[in-house]
TrEMBL record:
This is Galectin. One of its GO terms (molecular function) is carbohydrate binding. It holds the Pfam family Gal-bind_lectin. The lineage of its organism: Eukaryota, Metazoa, Ecdysozoa, Arthropoda, Hexapoda. SMART domains: Gal-bind_lectin, GLECT. Residues 24-158, 228-369 form the Galectin domain. Transmembrane segments: none annotated. The keyword Transport does not apply. Keywords: Lectin. Gene3D superfamilies: 2.60.120.200. The keyword Ribosomal protein does not apply.
């Protein structure tokens, strides 16, 4: 099922769940509170079609507060509820990859928060489901379908998702010092007047893939997305660069980079820089042009960010290099060696220890270049080098302060993205 599918698809959904016998049933759940985690582990049968997890309110109609049903051949997960015998509107869209298979073990985690359920699959946050009933009334968990070897665990957790070994943060490579002949340190110049660009950036080559010739660089393999990387706390400071290289997919919809503290989805992490390029339907036919969002999440809320309609030079099917410089007062964002934007610091960059990347790209390399010396470039010269055109640049306020909204909306069609981020201040 394609990403971004709407509710019209509900007409073809078969709720066979009503006639299936439970393979696991537990009544008398203790009172659910925010932070309650329910983990379901099991094994999918070789010819399995689907299975479901139901959180049930034991009233006269035996209402289902949350119904989670992975459809294995179709590669999507239905989320729904049922009250007085009537199913509600199903939710099926997710920007995250479907990673459940037949004849394999799985791990699904359901976290209760005050406003929604968060649902993780095999150690990765997959989607959310807003409460349609009072979650404190849930008494029973029921598992049905083509499963074996089921076990369920109910615990109180301090963070979500619970990661598996294969989904724990990857240690990002830290490259050594770069030498430059004619350099000035950050104390030698006024960063308000001079933009400092590492001389070595001119030597960063874009990776290319061909069948007939070997790669000019070391062997490159694509990271699995979403990518969660770890850097030493305090290492992404003035003069250091986060370098991200990869290739855009042929029909890109969006591309997201979060530079943040911690790798949890709940509690909400502090995000020093949220950078997102949306290639929405309104931009169809304009190659490389996108709506570029820059924001941050600090002190329990999203700041008023910036949104620009801009030529990003991110072309379908083409290689790219994104470099984010931690300057004196801001993050400076370069795509293919051209400065396109910046975001002033809204928190101390020394707290950063995690890089989160997601979207319609093949990710080949992520590295932190440390102790970089600078070649100073005058702003006038820089403006001549930069060929990107900003069509508009406006402030915007994220209407919902939930981290999972940013995550789950990434990758959906521009029509859906506009519904979430259409308001400006």
């Amino acid at each position: 099922m394609p990403l971004g599918s709407n509710y019209a698809y509900a007409l073809s959904i078969d709720y066979r769940d009503d006639i299936e016998d439970p393979v696991y049933l537990h009544k008398g759940l203790q009172r659910l509170i925010p932070g309650t985690s329910i983990k379901v582990l099991g094994y999918t049968k070789t010819n399995g079609e689907a299975f479901s997890i139901n959180l049930i309110i034991e009233n006269e109609s035996r209402d289902i507060a949350l119904h989670v049903r992975p459809q294995l051949p179709q590669h999507y997960i239905i989320r729904n509820s049922k009250f007085q015998g009537v199913w509600g509107k199903p939710e099926t869209a997710s920007a995250l990859p479907f990673n459940l298979k037949r004849a394999s073990y799985f791990f699904i985690q359901i976290l209760v928060t005050e406003r929604r359920f968060l649902i993780g699959v095999n150690g990765i946050h997959f989607c959310k489901f807003y409460h349609r009933a009072v979650y404190r009334d849930i008494e029973t968990i029921e598992v049905k379908g083509d499963l074996e070897d089921i076990s369920v665990e109910r615990t109180k957790v301090a963070y979500y998702p619970a990661r598996l070994p294969q989904t724990r943060p990857i240690n990002i490579r830290v490259e050594g010092s770069l030498n430059s002949d004619n350099t000035l340190t950050s104390t030698d110049v006024d960063m308000d007047e001079i933009i400092n660009i590492p001389k070595e950036w001119l030597k960063i080559s874009l990776p290319t893939r061909t069948i007939s010739a070997p790669l000019p660089r070391r062997a490159v393999t694509a990271f699995k997305l979403p990518f969660v990387g770890s850097i030493p706390k305090g290492s992404f400071i003035n003069g250091r660069i986060l370098k991200i290289e990869g290739q855009m997919k042929l029909l890109p919809q969006s591309f997201l980079i979060n530079i943040q503290k911690g790798c949890s989805v709940w509690p909400h992490p502090k995000i020093a820089l949220h950078l997102r390029a949306d290639f929405s339907l309104q931009n169809a036919g304009v190659v490389g042009r996108a709506t570029l969002l820059r924001s941050a999440y600090v002190d329990g809320q999203w700041i008023v960010g910036k949104r620009s309609y801009i030529n990003t030079d991110l072309h379908p099917g083409k290689a790219f290099s994104v470099c984010i410089l931690s300057a004196k007062k801001s993050f400076q964002i370069y795509i293919n060696h051209s400065l396109i934007s910046e975001l002033l610091f809204h928190c101390d960059p020394r707290i950063i220890d995690t890089i989160y990347i997601q979207g319609d790209v093949k990710l080949w390399d992520v590295a932190l270049i440390e102790e970089t010396l600078f070649q100073s470039i005058n702003m006038k010269t820089l403006s001549q080098m930069t060929v990107l055109t900003v069509v508009f640049d406006v402030d915007f306020k994220v209407p919902d302060s939930s981290y999972d909204q940013w995550i789950s909306m990434n990758g959906l069609h521009g029509r859906l993205a506009q519904q979430s981020f259409g308001s400006t201040t």
